[in-house]
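To whoever is covering the structure queue this week,

Two jobs came back overnight. Logging them here so there's a record in the thread.

Job A:
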Amino acid sequence: MDGGVYAGIGMGAAVAGYHCNDVAGHKGYFKKIIMFNRSILPLVIVFLIFGAAFLLFRNNLEALGFDWQVLSGGNLFLYLVTVFSMHLLSKGLHAENTQLFLRNAYSGIMVKLFASATAAFIYILATGGKVNKPALFTLMGLYLVYTGIELSIILKQSKERKHVKN
């Protein structure tokens, strides 16, 4: 029985060794992923702040005519779309040629814009015209907030990339 345990440990070490060599061969790729994950912190903070505010002040928001559920759902949607868009922009930033950069940059912008417009259109159709305008306009402002944060993060990554020697 002990031989089986040691054989399993040896097999695990062999597999771990294989993965370590695989990771060592792709250091730049994993560094980019780690950089992206670390840089997303401002988006996470904004998402949590707005999410908590919508939840904590839901009675006040309803008294003012806002639908807090629309605000919360829209906040989550905008966060997810912004993360995906930022991933495309970040990926384009690390591209080898200009065409790939432009394709990723425009894709990120277009995905975010059209996904948001489609979500708003679906919301309008689903409510049968009884749209909560204050919530919808607040989400438009939140779109601008997320876009501003996204651009500031990408510009910071761009400056850091210029200082890195290849």
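Job B:
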Amino acid sequence: MRSSGRRETYAMLVAAFLVIGVLTAHGDDAAQLYSETCSACHTVGQGDGAGPDLLASTRWPEQELRDAVERMKANVGELTDAQIDSLVALLKAPDLTDIESTLLPVTLESPKTKEARKGAAAMKHQAIQYLAFDVHQATSVASLRDESGSVVMRATVPTEAKALVRLVKSAGPRVQVAFEEGTQAQWLHDLLLPHAERVIVCTKRGASPVVNKNDELDADQLSADLYAGRLREVYHRGASVQTLKELVQNYVALVSDATRVMQRLKALYRGRAIAVKGSAVYRKGERKRWLDKLKGGARVRAASLFRQLDLLMELRAPAKSAMISEARRQPGWKVLRSIPYLGDVRVAELLAILITPHRFRTKRNLWPYAGLAVVTRSSSDQEFVDGKLRKKKRAPITRGLNRNHNPLLKAVLKGAANAATVRPGPLRDWYDASRKRGVRDELAKVSLARKIASIVLRLWKKGELWNPDKLMVQAT
């Protein structure tokens, strides 16, 4: 449903084009444009169609009309000052209301327009169907509910594109689809999005388990939650950064695997009381010396781990290069790269994870996603004093940071905060000021990570580069 402001804006534009068509002041081009874009939904003085009647827009104040025409540039393209003046003059013309009882000219009523009007009206009143999938590797169990919430269909289909799309189309022209986050969630979201009114990828993390569980019960419960509006949606848009996301996952996996192999190597030596410190054990020039300290199967295992490490390090460099090259193509690269302690790798990871800053209305929406939101608990918060209810002067008990978060994003922000605390600069000064106020070291670092997250969100939204003089400005 359109908001009233947007409806008024559309109404103003359509009324202008209708008047142009009726008065033939601007030739047949405007009438043709009205016929193709507006007449299927709107009339002037003939009552509401699929869209509102436009007669009321003819009585707006002149400045309000001019502002509405200016706003229409975002929808119809650039309008010159002369065109804006012409539209405002037409809408304010005394004889404009003469068309109140006039039907649309025959030239504006093509068969195609009539069919479009019928289709739009039918679509408006079509009942919404609620379809939920319990998705598995081989099969997907579907549960469909109608507008009253009753289950009208259950089906099991192969987890294949053709079968899933056919099932969604069979549910009707207005269908909302939901399924849980998982390995195939992104593929399924992109597959079904063109064929459904809405596609929701949800998370059931933290939900109370039911006594009985099977695929059919899971699908029924999911469709019931979809119908009732109880689902927590997981963000799955951002096709423009899909390549970057894959490259970031590739690089992060290689780094993680190499770190795991390094830890296994050190554990192998420490398990035999052989002292091993630093990175000397990983150097190819000293490898023979370290292998000579082991015998039998341990030596074979260490040699295998060394070969794994060599291969991973060989793959790591080109993976990093490809990731950074793709990240440089993103519009937010220049802004984020200007922020201290956000290097090429961290910026690439931020771009792939956050996708767009407009996902988060304020910094307080970003902090929980990054695992930087403080969890508090309180009870018996109010009391009666002299017959008046008031809040108790007692601070809530903190329970650490939230656990449901994106671990890679948290690692990026914590890494930037830790780097800022050991190197001189504006962020280090901000951290030192927190410590002087009596804030504990670990809490000051968390506050600094939150500050960096706020700076990222603010600068990215506004398209501004880093300016240390604005560091103390409240970030939003």
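Note for Job B: The two ends are 29 Å apart (CA to CA).

Please reply-all if you pick these up so we don't duplicate work.
Q.
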